[in-house]
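Kindly go through the entry underneath: sequence plus fold tokens. Please state briefly how this chain folds according to its tokens.
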Amino acid sequence: MFMRLVVDLTLPSEARLISRTRRLFSGYLEVFGASQETVSDVVLAVDEACTNVVRHAFDGGPLADRPPFRLTAELSDDELVVVIEDDGVGMPTHAIDLRPLDAEPEATSGRGLQIIRELMTSVDIETAPHRQGTRLEMRKDLRV
């Protein structure tokens, strides 16, 4: 039997709902029969992506002034596709192009995209000047 689930969320640009978003993904992936390793990978990748929006997309300022961001996900028997979009300031090109070996060993942050790339099957990013804000699409093959 083929199963498909679509999730479409609009989230405030603050950290308080990220833990609930992690639980949502964990629960749905478990229902779809994903391995515990896959569940952990996806939950961490989604957490990193949402945290990046909250920390970096809106360049500080009061929480009340920050617009929400969007998270959509399509889960089927063989693949998960998650798209996170914001209308923030965009990302610098050098941040998008960083690879794991480029990270400073003592850095306490700045590894979010690298972690996401390691955990997911594919990651695509669109940002300024091609669009307002940033769109991150990540895919995870669930057949492995």
Observations:
- The two ends are 19 Å apart (CA to CA).
- Residues 36-56 form the longest helix (21 residues).
- The CA atoms of residues 122 and 139 lie 5 Å apart.
- The beta strands are 4-11, 69-76, 79-86, 122-127, 134-141.
